[in-house]
Amino acid sequence: MSIARPRPLLIAGKYAALLGYLTFALFPLYWLLKIAITPDQLIFTEGTQLWPSSLTFDNFRTVLFQTDFLAYFGNSLYVSLGTAAATTLIAAGAGYAFSRFDFGGKKIIIAVMLITQMFPLLMIIAPIYKIVASFGMLNSLTSLIVVYTAFNIPFATFLMQSFFDGIPKDLEEAAMMDGCSRFQALRKVIFPLTLPGLGATLGFVFTAAWSELLFALMLISKNEAMTFPMGLLTFVSKFSVDWGQMMAAGVLALIPSCLFFIFIQRYLVQGLTSGAVKG
Amino acid sequence: MARIELRNVVKRYGAVEVLRDINLDVEDGEFIVLVGPSGCGKSTLLRMIAGLEPITAGDFMIDDIRMNDVRPRDRDIAMVFQSYALYPHMDVARNMGFSMEIRKDPATERASRVKQAADTLGLTALTERLPKALSGGQRQRVAMGRAIIRDPRAFLFDEPLSNLDAALRVEMRLEIARLHQKLGATMIYVTHDQVEALTLADRIVVLNGGDIQQVGSPLDLYERPANKFVAQFIGSPTMNLVPIKGRPEGVTLADGALLKLPHLPDSPDAIELGIRPEHIEVTDQGDLSGIADVVEHLGSDTNIYLNVEKLGPLMVRKHGNIPIRPGERVGLRIQPENVHLFAPDGSALRRASPNMAA
């Protein structure tokens, strides 16, 4: 056995690979920000220059005060939060049931939920339109919440189930021996330990709903009910592709997602269950 | 304090019968140890008593009241889990006082009881820590504290020491013994470790394959095992088994030697002779001799693994340090008064020996 010695070439290679990946993944974001703060007249003249010769916040000002952007933003926030809350609530209940109980038809339900995830959404957009139209819910944000929730539940349920699976059954049983009913055990012991899972699910569903375009385009046509991704498209038509404003709007749209992920990753990393059982 | 009774208790998972016809009376204040190899159903039985596992058939009574369908929270039984099952988001004090918190006992009373339990278990300095900041032994103590604080009718222990290292296990074993003396409470304890069983139990219940093999005091099981399984399971090192033929005046070993045994049972149909390693003497005038294969010097004892021609391997344990080297020929004498005989079905044949009746 030889003692593993740090090999400088290997380490350098590792970091080079990491750097390459990060550049590839983050460059578009950088470009988004760069164009958003480039004055209009320089966008084409300076072309692919990495940093513009002068900066401006005019694009942000215009987007915030002279377009319907804030309304779109509010709509998106409403839809995304509604979807995240509804999906997480249902997925937590379903995930707990899948993790803890044995009931008839469990395998069939899981199989059906998997099947719903197999088809490209494009295939079912027409029937969904028909269904929503027949309920008279076109152009309503509620219809978006319902549809998004329906499509996010299977994945969110599996995610929550895996989090519940990670909480030892002993803890619940100990709580029940200590005098809790099953529901009390859930509330006092399991729920606090599931917070990371709830955070992850909330964040995942929130971002999925935040960036969804296909269903929104299909189900919403009125300007006042538009969500933010549709709003981005309006920069193409209304202002003959106003790149600067579009990018500025894009940067603003990143803020909620970023906040959400900062909030989640704290929980994801925490590892709350450590110390519960033997160590 | 409680008397626990199991009457013809059965546990089935679908068509699989895990426990058959279990009958057991646990007296008030008794320390019962359920012992057996893994998969014998001992933990399942404990969980049925706790109420965490439904009872398929039979009656389970606490103080003559049938409790089969009573929820765990209403049975007033405390349980210490193998994994400790401490609530990771609560500090030590809240972990221990959790049952009182659920019962909505006054906070001042809860605090004083927690303090008392913490003092008893040497946890006073740790009450504000989270479980993840505790060592294995400390977690084990917290789990015990959580149980004693409730002053329950009975305590259940599910292999509580199996996650601890050897030294700590001995220490915690003593602590559990002291706790039992102090509280005088009914305790049911599951383990696969026969040393824990022999040291802690008032009575041991040996389980195998879903059946109770024998119930008795530790000495009972050691001196009068009901069958081959109990004989080999209880006692360390394991009892030697030697094939024999029965004769009116004794038994014939496979090498043809006759071993005279007084007080043979009426039907000498024994096919195996059991003799514990500590009941074989090393002597020059023995009935047998074998070649020492491996010699282990433990200081207080010497373990000698021998090969005896036509008989097979034998193990002998001698007190003290015996200067035998591997490869040497060793003369052996089997103590006739400590011989166990087993019928073809594995059950023990009783000999009317005055020594054995003691």
Q: What CATH architecture label of chain A applies?
A: Orthogonal Bundle
Task: Supply the CATH architecture of the largest domain in chain B.
Answer: 3-Layer(aba) Sandwich
Helix content of chain A: over 70%
Order of helices and strands of chain A: HHHHHHHHHHHH
What gyration radius of chain B follows from the Cα positions, in whole Å? 24 Å
The amount of helix of chain B comes to 10-25%
Count of individual helical segments of chain A: 12
CATH level 3 topology of chain A: MetI-like fold
Main beta sheet of chain A: strand number and arrangement? Answer: none
Helix- and strand-based class of chain B? alpha+beta
**CATH topological fold name of the largest domain in chain B:** Rossmann fold
The SSE string of chain B, one letter per element, is EEEHEEEHHHEHEHEEHHEEEEEEEEEEEH
The percent range for strand residues of chain B is 25-35%
Total number of domains of chain B: 2
- Read across the widest sheet of chain B, the strand sequence of neighbours is 6-7-8-3-9-10
Mean pLDDT of chain B: 89
Distance between the ends of chain A: 29 Å
How far apart lie the N and C ends of chain B?
A: 32 Å
Given this structure, which CATH class of the largest domain in chain B is correct? Alpha Beta
Provide the low-confidence segments of chain B as ranges: 354-358
